[in-house]
Amino acid sequence: MKLLQVLDAAIAGVDLTVEAGVFLLSQTEPEAIESIRMAADAFRQMLCGETVTYVVNRNLNFTNICEQHCHFCAFRRDAGDPDSFWLDQAQLQEKAAAAWAEGATELCIQGGLNPQAKHNGRSLDYYLDLVAALKDAFPGLHLHAFSPQEIEFIAREDQLSFRDVIIALKDTGVGSLPGTAAEILDDQIRRQICPEKLKAATWLEIVSTAHHLGLPTTSTMLCGHIETPLHQVQHLAQIRQLQQQAIAEGKPAKITEFILLPFVGQAAPQVLRKKVGRDQPDLQKTLLLTAVARLFLGKWIINHQPSWVKLGLGGATTALRWGCNDLGGTLMEEHITTMAGAQGGTCLTVSQLRTAIASVDRLPAERTTLYQDRHSRRGSSADMI
Ligand code: SF4
Prior knowledge:
With 385 residues, this protein is α/β, with parallel strands linked by helices. The protein has 15 helices and 10 strands. It has a 4-stranded parallel sheet with strand order 2-3-4-5. A 3-stranded parallel sheet has the order 9-1-10.
């Protein structure tokens, strides 16, 4: 396989094979890696131009009480642990009000799988009440809420179909689903890093169902732990196929972005941490994977975002030269990765994001969750994708 031929094919819009993706990830010579970076950067420029977007948002992690024990997770607690929490409606409203006052357009709502959410035989009602109260008080905030794992949890607890859970959440005010809990879409790896989590096929089924029902999602990959380059590329291939399917079948919604989430192990449970043997992401490997993801996902997923929480703002800004066109959100309050030992911080200001974008000679632009120009939110709907 010849490197320049593979890169030329990717830029020409040819879908790379899994073998070609692994071939790109296997490159070690600095000149070869620079060629991959330049190709990803050129392809990004063709698809997205010089604009780098960001969203003003707030994370709302409503509880850290969780029935599962993912080996990379330093966030979860058991009920009764001294530092466990479960926010009540007044606390949620207060955080949402602060976000609105600071100009946020989005609340990103995710939490642990808390069996106490079940009241009078149903868990779904807890989630619907949470959504309804926030949407009622702040109709202008987009609720980007509940991962496929949370959808699976509600459906399992209440003996409902994924479809029924998603319809109920959408009808009550959820505007999109975070594509988290994907980790690596390979059940052998999942058994080792998150044995209780939903299977890869279930994650794909829930995301596909959301698209069918008109609910957009994001997509993610947890990288840099025990997975191999083949697992990484096979993961990308499944995400690409999901998007192709949504487009081919004319589904009313699809994947809006791809986010690479490198493993941070500093405060994670020992088992996985020892296997990985590294507490902070390997920036060079993450950047190469960032570029390969841009080329492999091709014209199918336009928006690529690095994680400033995991890479730090400096690392995430560097990733803008490796194929990314979005710098994520202000977050205002990040707990999950920070508790694992990430050093990127818990929030960023708009000014910090815009300065970082300008530092690589790109044009900052605020977007909504669904990649519309923020300023069209209350007027026309100029679509940026
Ligand atoms: S990653 Fe999510 S599901 Fe897994 S233990 Fe942590 S909070 Fe629970």
